[in-house]
């Protein structure tokens, strides 16, 4: 992994020197197994995004998205959410927290609400412990306040209380 991080640093160096061809040569010699590591993959992704290599960034994202690293979603959503639809329909619930937080930070509350609703709808009776956690609720509340929907923020706080009480009751009953 250390060698891969060195290569990424070298790649970034060449980009900063405006020598894109040299940087892309380094990118091409990076082994795909190295890029599947979340630390290396996210660093490569960030370098590609920062230096305008959108096609390569999307190709790498498509390769590593199956591992569902929350930071990976964050990098792409913050960089390209307006330009291309991120294929989130098949993302697992474990990624929803990151997706919701990014959407809320961008003030895209209708999209965040859709994912939040999916988190609840995908919970079966015996899986109620899996639903949205406190940080997900907090992201929604902050997002509502940011866009001036204070009443919705209070409703979300009430939902959070009910959800967490339900989780506590289920936990104590088992």
UniProtKB/TrEMBL annotation:
The keyword Repeat applies. The keyword Glycoprotein does not apply. Pfam families: PPR, PPR_1. Keywords: Repeat. InterPro entries: PPR_domain-containing, PPR_rpt, TPR-like_helical_dom_sf. PPR repeats lie at residues 92-122, 133-167. This is Pentacotripeptide-repeat region of PRORP domain-containing protein.
């Amino acid at each position: 992994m250390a060698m891969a991080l060195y290569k990424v640093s070298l790649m970034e160096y060449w980009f900063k020197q405006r020598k894109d061809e040299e940087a892309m040569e380094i990118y091409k010699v990076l082994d795909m197994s190295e890029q599947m590591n979340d630390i290396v993959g996210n660093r490569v992704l960030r370098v590609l995004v920062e230096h305008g290599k959108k096609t390569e960034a999307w190709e790498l994202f498509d390769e590593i998205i199956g591992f569902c690293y929350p930071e990976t979603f964050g990098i792409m959503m913050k960089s390209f959410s307006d330009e291309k639809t991120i294929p989130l329909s098949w993302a697992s619930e474990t990624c929803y927290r990151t997706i919701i937080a990014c959407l809320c930070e961008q003030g895209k509350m209708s999209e965040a609400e859709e994912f939040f609703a999916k988190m609840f709808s995908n919970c079966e009776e015996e899986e109620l412990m899996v639903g949205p956690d406190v940080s997900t609720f907090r992201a929604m509340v902050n997002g509502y306040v940011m866009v001036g929907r204070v009443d919705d923020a209070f409703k979300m706080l009430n939902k959070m209380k009910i959800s967490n009480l339900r989780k506590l009751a289920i936990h104590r009953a088992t």
